[in-house]
Amino acid sequence: MNVKSTNTSIKKKSKFIPYLLLLSTILFFQYSWSQNISVKIIDATTKEPIPYATINIDKKEHLISNAEGFFNLSETAIQDENTLIITYLGYKNLEVKVSQLSKLDYIIALTPTIFELNDVQVNGKKPNPYVIMAAVKANLSINYRNTDNPIKDMLFVRKSTATYPKEVVVDINQSTGFSKQALKQVNSDVQNFTNALIKSPPKEYTDMLCNLFTHTIKKDNKSFESHKINVLKATVLKNEGSTTSSEELKEIGIKTMLKHLDSTKYYRIKSGLIGSRDTISLRKDFNKKKTKSKTADQSTLLTTTKYNLTQFIKNNNLGKSSEHDFINNPELYTYKFEGTTFTEDNDYAFVLSFLPKKGSAKFTGKLYINESDYAVLRAEYQLDEGENLHNVNLKWLLGIKVAQNNNKGILMFRKKSENKNYYLHYASEENGNYFYINRPLKFIEITKEDKDILSLDIKYEGNSTTKTEFLNLSHSLVTDTDVTKVVENEFNIVSLKSYDPKIWKGYHAIEPVAELKRFKVKE
Questions:
Q1: Could you give a GO molecular-function term held by this entry (predicted)?
Q2: Three-state SS letters, 338-365
Q3: Which of 44, 88, 453, 478 could be a cystine partner for 177, CB 3.0 to 4.6 Å?
Q4: Burial (Cβ within 10 Å: 0-12, 13-18, ≥19) of residue 288
C-alpha cells in the first residue's frame, strides 16, 4: 500500500471540504430564500404567540398571523429592503426590515402598551359604554358604506369542514328481497362503513386565492353592485371518497346497501310515514340520464363561488347586515368599559366587553371601538354558555334533533385609503351543529304492486363543524374600464394528498395551523 499517496489524497480531500461546506451553505440560503418563509409573532413579556396580528408589507399587502401566531412571506416579498409593519390592538407598532428576520430567528416580539384606567376620560367623565354603543350604531351606515368607485380586492379564503359521528347504528329487521348470503354481506358492508366513519371522521380543507372586482351599475334609475371574479388558485385536501356533507353521507350509505339489490330494477325510499318521490336505481342508463338532468340545473363552480364569497362579505358588513345583534341591537346586551388601547394609527380605541341581557341575546365577547369615529375595529364573539341557535327538537315525534351549538368568530376592519370608511380585512367564522336522527327506512321495489325489499332502523348521532377564514390581502381602486376588461373563466380545484406550501409559492396565503400541516390523505 502506498501510504504517501494515500496521505496526499486525504490532504487534498481535507482542503476541498471547506469549499463543499461553503457551497452547501450558499445553496441552502439560496433555496430557503427562494421559498415562502414562516415567521412567528409573540408577546415580548409572556413569550406567548399573538394570533391575528396584522402585517403590512411595504404598505402594499396586509397579512394576518394565524391562530398559532405564524404568518408566511412569499418569494416576491422576501426582499431585504422591504419593511414589515406589525400591528395589534394593545401592542406598540413595530417596524422590521426583511433583512433583520434571520437575526431575529424569524420571531418578532411585540411589546404591550400600558394604560391607567383612571386616566381615561371623555369630556371630563369616565366613558359610558352605552353612550359609546349608541354612537357606534348611529355611525354604522357611514363607517361601513360601500364606495361607488370600482375596486379590486385580492382575497384568500380557507374553509374547513369536519363530521364527527358519535354513534351509527343500522338494524335490519326485514329483508324479503335478500338471500342469506346477500344479507350477510350487507351487514358486513354497513358495519365497515360505520366503523370507518367513527374511526376516521371525514375532514376537508379548501383554499382559494382570487381577485374580486366590484363596481356599481345603474339600471332603471337604481344602483346595483356588480362583481367579477378571477380565481388564481384553488386547492382541496380530503380523503378520497369521503365527504363532510350529511346529504352525501346519506347517499353513500344508501349506495352501500343498494349495490346488493337487483341492478335491473327501480326502487323508492320510505322513512316512517314519509315516502320519497325520487326513483333510485343502479341501472347505468337511468343514472346517466339523471346525472345529465342534475348537471343542467346546477350552477357553475365559478357562479357558486362568487355568490358564496360576496354573501360572506355582505353578511359581515356591519352597516348592512343585522346578523351581529351585539352591535346592531345594543339594547339586548350589558356592556362594560374595560379600558383604552392604541390603534395602529396611534389613535385611541375603547375596549368594551358584553354579555346577554335579554332572552333573545345569545353572545358574549369584546369590542374595540375607534374613539374618533366610533367604528368597530375588531369584534370577538361566541355563543354564551348553554346557548343554541336554530334549535329544532322533534326527537320524540319524528326522531330528529338539530341544534347549532357553536358559533364564534373574529371580525377585523381596516380604514380605506379612498374615503376613510372601513372594509372587512379579516374574518374567522366557526359554526358547529349537533345532529340526532333515529328513523325507520324502507327500500321498496316499484312494481304494479309495491313490494318491500328491505326494512331497517337507522340511528345517527354526531357533530359537524365548519370554519371559514377570510383575508383581504390588498384593497385598491381601479377604473370601470379595468373591470370591463376582466374575463371570468371557469376554474379547477387542485386535489392534494397533503398540505404542500410549494403550491402557494409566489403568493401569500394564511399560514396553516399544525393540524392542517399534519393532515395526509389516506390511500
A1: carboxypeptidase activity
A2: EEEEECCCCCEEEEEEEEECCCCCCEEE
A3: 453
A4: exposed
Task: Give the whole-angstrom CA distance, residue 73 versus residue 65.
Answer: 11
- CATH class, domain 34-114, is mainly beta
Q: In the structure grid, which three cell numbers stand for residue 162, read together?
A: 369536519
Taking only the tens place, the pLDDT of each residue in 64-116 is 999 999 998 887 777 777 899 999 988 989 999 998 998 999 999 999 886 55
- Which triple of cell numbers denotes residue 237? 385536501
What is the rounded end-to-end Cα distance, in angstroms, of the chain? 55
Using alpha carbons only, what angle is made at residue 432 by residues 431 and 433, rounded to the nearest 5 degrees?
130
Alpha helices in 127-236 (DSSP H): 129-138, 140-143, 180-199
- Among left, alpha and beta (phi > 0; psi -120 to 50; other), residue 236 is beta
CA-based radius of gyration for the chain: 29
Taking CA atoms, 17 is separated from 3, 6, 14, 31, in Å, by 21, 17, 5, 21
Beta bridge partners of 444: 268, 452
107 contact partners, CB below 8 Å, separation of at least 6 = 39, 40, 41, 42
pLDDT one-digit tens code per residue, 207-233 = 999 999 998 887 777 778 889 999 999
Q: Are 156 and 208 in contact (CB under 8 A)?
A: yes
For 408-448, the pLDDT digits (tens) are: 999 999 998 777 899 999 999 999 998 888 877 777 777 76
Residues 498 and 519 sit within 8 Å (Cβ to Cβ): yes
Give CA–CA dist 103/105, Å, rounded: 5
- Residue tagged 360572506 (cell numbers): 312
CA atoms within 13 A of residue 388's CA, in its CB half-sphere:
12
> Which contiguous run of DSSP H or E holds residue 294?
helix 284-297
The Cα–Cα gap between 185 and 177 comes to 14
Helices 180-199 and 246-258: crossing angle in degrees, nearest 10, is 160
- Domains in the chain: boundaries: 1-33, 34-114, 142-514
Confirm if 367 and 354 have CB atoms less than 8 A apart: yes
Return phi, psi of residue 135, to 5°: -70, -35
Helices (H), 388-486: 480-485
Taking the CA atoms of 316, 319, 323 and 328 in sequence, report the sign of the dihedral they define. positive
C-alpha span between 92 and 104 (Å, rounded): 18
Give every strand in the sheet of 94-97, ordered side by side.
61-64, 54-57, 83-87, 94-97
CB 367 within 8 A of CB 376: yes
Tell me the three cell numbers of residue 174: 326485514
Q: What is the DSSP letter of 479?
A: -
This prediction's pTM: 0.80
Could you give the C-alpha distances from 146 to 224, 313, 314, 319, 329, in angstroms and in order?
Answer: 11, 11, 10, 9, 21
Q: How far is CA 20 from the centre of its chain?
A: 46
